[in-house]
Structure formats: structure tokens, C-alpha cells
Amino acid sequence: MTPLERSWGWLAVGICLLGCRPSAAGGRDFSGSRPNILLLMADDLGIGDLGCYGNATIRTPNIDRLAEEGVQLTQHLAAASVCTPSRAAFLTGRYPLRSGMVSSQGGRVLLWTGVPGGLPTNETTFAKILQGQGYATGLVGKWHLGLNCKSSGDHCHHPLNHGFDHFYGMPFSMMADCANWVLSEKRESLKRRLNFYALLAACLALALAAGKAIGLFPVPWALALCPTAVAVLLFAASYFMGALIVHADCFLMRNHSITEQPMNLSRTTPLLLREVSSFVHRNKQRPFLLFVSFLHTHIPLVTTKDFLGASVHGLYGDNVQEMDGMVGQILDTLETAGLANSTLVYFTSDHGGSLEAQWGSHQYGGWNGVYRGGKGMAGWEGGIRVPGIFRWPGVLPAGRVVSEPTSLMDVFPTVVQLGGGKVPQDRVIDGRDLLPLLLGTAAHSDHEFLLHYCQTVLHAARWHQRDRGAIWKVHYLTPVFHPEGAGACYDKIVCPCSGDGVVRHDPPLLFDLSRDPSEAHALTPDTEPAFHQVVERVARAVEGHRRTLSPVALQLDTPSNLWRPWLQPCCGPFPLCWCDQEGDADGQTPPDRDL
């Protein structure tokens, strides 16, 4: 077949699919040809960590094979540069600000399992829509979008309350605290907070004692010294109770039941793979949607012994290569079940690699390739540009590369319509259907503008000026970098969104990503004649976007993101949270519980 004949063949496939699939407003049913949908999401993976995106030193043959056999997106963007808001946007197709999955007070993600915040029940996920279309829906791995509201068992934010028939994994997130690692997202924060209150109590005790001694406060000595006892208890709690709390968040759950608390990290990977295989084989006679949300490559980089020392990039490289091996096993499961050709497979990361994941001279975070910045840095490309690979044998062209701006939010309308569902019309959906772009029947992305928020603050925006082929990026705020090393915010776990840790730019910084993807050379009115035109056009688009926003409760603000002991999931009397119902992880199938 000649190249021209192949091109016409793909065009015919595209026209057929587009003619048979439902539209956003409701169209014809094509349930007889609906694909299975397998969504694979890494955690904190840098776009530069994969061979198909230019890495020559970390081996990722299975993910690279997906790119060779499918369509690779090179300007695929997360809606946020940290976990919780990015994943909320992925599942709902909406900027996280619309669902309230952001904070105005510095809380970048959900900090504990025992908090009332989470993905609101009035939000609609693609899983909920496909569940209504007869799909079996499952989530294996990380959730990190909340769990309970008023009690430790109401499960208001649980995956099963957001359209998933089956859940197995971590309701929270793999964090360094789960392995007593030197880098800690939660332990040090908890210690600082408790120690602060302990110091206040100690100062109060000293003031009362001094006042009692000079006769200023006529109170009993026992009462005057009471704050001392409080201070001692708080100091002790910062070191002992804190450890119990953070470990209590490291647990596995099957549907509504805790199966292992704390997790036995050495067997978590085989347990997750076993669950994926079980779900696929249980549901191979019906269409399914399976979201595999890896715990890799988030610190503490839990890696099985078979992959330790396998890479030239230390523990992080080992962890990436193990995740690639997991992708290979999952793809083998599809082959064994005879489902490879009837399954749309998608691979991505929730955001860029972490530059702050460092200890001494060791780097434990990902590599973001040529792109500036990383995790937590809302506007810079390194924090939001992620892998995006789609494979659907016999439908999507193999080896196609798309350089148009696309978003993780685009997965929502794409899979909803492929599954025979309708995109909701009662709310703003920011994602755009990707299938025409993947097939090659559309030359350009439907995204003319994309906004890049840090919490509630707009840090940057991009404009795809199609008639010029330019992709402009306007930065209003940028985090303060330290010049040494990788340029990370070393004194922070992630860079802040506002305050002294950011620089406000007036006029804004302007880059043309089509010529300068590294954002190394800011344009000025002297170097770019269209400077003012571009900045003004983007400003109008931002203003138009803001008019579409509605006030919502912010789920990551302190009232909803403050730990409450009565919300803490525990399979024993708190704080003695311990149970193990997993048995041997080397078995082939898990017990059929709550299926």
C-alpha cells in the first residue's frame, strides 16, 4: 500500500468513527463498537524520564512501545502542577478551581486522609457517566481526592461514590512518611505546627509563673503551671503521636474495607498488579474502564528487589524502570485476555517531576527534559508538561506525533463520547474531544487558550495563534528560584503560589514556546513587535474565562484540610490502626470480596 493509500485509509476510518460516535449534544449509539478504556497515570514522573521523549539512559521499552504503536502528544498539559487538583481536573474535565479542589491559604493538596475535604459529590467524573452506559468501572492505585465528610465511614468522597464499581489501592497518596524517609511531606509540617503551639503554651506558663511570683496574677501555682504540662504534652506529641498519624494514612483499601494498615511496602506492587489482572479477566466479556493510578514515581520510591540497582540513575531510575515493567505486565494481561485490539490505552503523569526531592547530593525526583521548572511551579512548563500516549490498534495510526496543545482534561470528553455517553451540558467542561486530533482528521487542537493556575492564583496563560503557528506563553507570576543546582525552591517542599515566594511581572513575561520551549529567553517590546498585541489578547481571554467562574467552597482550605481524629480511617481502635487481610501477594488472584 502506498503512503497516499494509507492516508486515505486512515481518513476513511476517522470519518466512519466520527459518523458513528455520539456528539456532545447526544447522537447515535454505537455500543457494538465501544472500546475498553485503560488509563495509566504515573505520579510525579518527569516527561524527560521516558525514552520516547528523549531519555537515552533510563530504559522504558514498554511505554516506548505504546508510543510506537500509537499516537504521542508532545504538548500535553496538566491542569495543575501538584497531585490533588490535577487529578480532580483529569476526572471531571474541568479546571480544579471550578470544583473547589484548590486552596487560597497555601494547602496545595489534601494533607491527610482524616479531613472532610475532597471531590464534591455534585461533580461528575467520566467514570460515573460510563458506569451509566453499562461499563464496568475500576480504579486500582492512588486516589488522593478525599474519603469522608462527617464520620470515618460515610465515604462521601470515596471512588465508589464517584462512578467506580471497584476500588483497590491507597485512598490517600504514597508519601515519604510511609517509609520513614528522610524527605517528609507531612511529618515535619506536623512537628512544626505542634511545636509552635507548644512554644506558645510554654511562654504562657512562664508569664503566669512570673506574674504569680511578683503577685501580679493571684492564681494558684497549679493553675499557673498548667500551660507547662500542655507544652510538654505537645512537644511529646510532635514526635510520637505525629508518627502514628502519618503511618495511619499509609493503608490499602478494597472498596469500603481497609485490608492492610500500615502497608507492607515490599508487596504493594505485586498486589496492585494482581488486582489489575483480576479486574480485566472478570470483565473481559463486557466493556470496561480501568484507571490504573501508579504509586510510582513518588518518593519514597518503593521499589522491589528485582529492580534495585537496575538503572544508572540510582533509586529514582530504578523506580521508573519498575513502573515501565508494570506497564508491560498490564499490556500482557490485555494480550492474554484477547483484548489488546479492542482497548484504548492511555499513559500520562499527573504533573512534572519534583526538583525539591533532593537529599544531600542525591536527586530523587524526575527529569523534565528541556522544560523549565517542575512539580509545584504552576506556570513553568516543567511542572505541567507531561507524557501523553494513546494506543488503539487498528484505529489510531501507529507512530503519529501531535504537537498541538492538549490537556489531561481532554480525556473526559474523549472517553465519555467513545463510551456512548453525553458530555454534561449543565456545567462548563474545559476539556476538548481529542479523537479527531488523534486520527489526523483535525489539523489543530480545539484549545486556543489554556490557563495555568497555582491554587486560586492565575500564574500564566498560553495562546495558540494558529494563523502564525505561534504558541505564546504569558507569565504573570513566577516562583522565586534558587540559582544553584536544579533551580528548585530548596527551602520548601513545593514552591509557594503567592507572597514573598513569588515574583509579580508587570509587564508580564512573554515567551514563544514554538521557538523557545525551554522558556529561556523572555521577549520584550524591543525583541518582539507583537508583544503588546499578544499580551492584550491573552488578557482579554483571561477576563472572558473569569466570567465563567462561579463561587464554590474551597476543599483544600484549612477548614476542610485540617486533620480530625474522628474522620481517620482505622481498622482498629485509634491510634492502634493495624490489620492485614492480604495474605500472600504472590498468588495469582485476590479473594473475590465486595466485587
Keywords:
595 residues, alpha/beta, Alkaline Phosphatase, subunit A, 2 domains, 12-stranded mixed beta sheet, 4-stranded antiparallel beta sheet, 17% strand, globular, disordered N terminus
Describe this structure in words.
The chain is 29% helix and 17% strand. It is an alpha/beta fold. The protein folds into 2 domains: 38-180 and 251-567, 3-Layer(aba) Sandwich (Alkaline Phosphatase, subunit A), CATH 3.40.720.10; 187-243. The strands form 3 sheets. Strands 1, 2, 3, 4, 5, 6, 7, 8, 11, 12, 13 and 18 form a 12-stranded mixed β-sheet that branches. A 4-stranded antiparallel β-sheet has the order 14-15-16-17, covered by helices on one side. Helix 6 packs antiparallel against helix 8. The protein is globular and about 85 Å long.
Let me know the average pLDDT. Answer: 87
* Oligomeric description of these chains: single chain
Helix content: 25-40%
The CATH homology group name of the largest domain: Alkaline Phosphatase, subunit A
In CATH, the architecture of the largest domain is 3-Layer(aba) Sandwich
Give the domain tally. Answer: 2
Percent of residues in beta strands? 15-25%
Reported by name, the CATH topology of the largest domain is Alkaline Phosphatase, subunit A
Kindly summarize this structure in a few lines.
The chain has two domains: 38-180 and 251-567, Alkaline Phosphatase, subunit A, CATH 3.40.720.10; 187-243. It has helices at residues 3-20, 61-69, 83-92, 96-99, 126-132, 187-213, 221-224, 226-239, 241-248, 268-282, 314-336, 381-384, 411-418, 435-439, 531-546, and strands at 36-42, 71-77, 136-142, 166-170, 252-254, 257-261, 288-293, 343-349, 358-359, 362-363, 385-391, 400-402, 406-407, 449-454, 457-465, 470-479, 502-512, 579-580.
